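User: Hey, my collaborator sent me this sequence without any context and asked if I could get a structure. I don't really work with proteins. Can you help?
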Amino acid sequence: MLSVNTNMGAMIALQNLSKTNRDMETTQNRINTGLSVSSAKDNGGIYAIAQNMRGEVGALNAVGQSLNRSKSIVDVALAAGETISDLIVQMKEKALAAADASNDTTARLALNEDFVALRKQIASIVSNAAFSGVNIINNTTTKLEPLASASASKLTVLGENMSLGGSIITITATGQITTQAAASTMMGTINTSLTNVNRALARLGTSSKRLSLQEEFVTKLSDSLKGGIGNLVDADLAKESAQLQALQVKQQLGIQALSIANSSPSIITSLFR
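Assistant: No problem. I've predicted the 3D structure and written it out in structure-token form, which is a compact way to encode the shape of the chain:
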């Protein structure tokens, strides 16, 4: 039936062209964003899952930063402790020389000056072994509790008080070796301090390694989650490119079909010539 009021062919052609245009818009959006699911309207279920996983990745980033900061604090403490151990070894040499009965008072006083300088250097190192304002070897921070997981579980790293006259370094802040007797007594104190410092270093080293392992695990877990998100929402650009070319052809054909359908009513005018 020919009618000037109703053109079913044009309606159908327009419907198909509109669908093709919508499909092209979707495909172009996937190409532009690189995502097949960029909003909830694309796929509500997948979008919700991906958003939850993105939240997990964000939380793991915070965990990684916490672990990295704590590891840096421990590593600074380790470096300071190793230097302190070396200084105590030098103090032992001075004390042993001062305990030698063949040395006179002048020699002992010279050795004592070196000994006191080394002792003061230990105090200075302990005081300045801080990272980001945190020092775990001067008894100001007794423990670290960095985040270990996205669920806010924590690791515990205990501090090591290496202050002079403490439980680890038993050499007092006023210790000297001016006499043979004082030097002989100091030898025992130094040996105890050296043993304690090396044990403390072993504990700090274990803590640093533990933090490194946890940080490595968190990084791998985060990478796995990112890969999972990509599997869910990333667009296959090769497929989308082929789809776009096909839709462009369909669009051109749709325009031609609509043009043909729109020309049909003009046939009616020939009936009234």
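In plain terms: The chain has a mean pLDDT of 91. You can pass these tokens on to your collaborator as they are.
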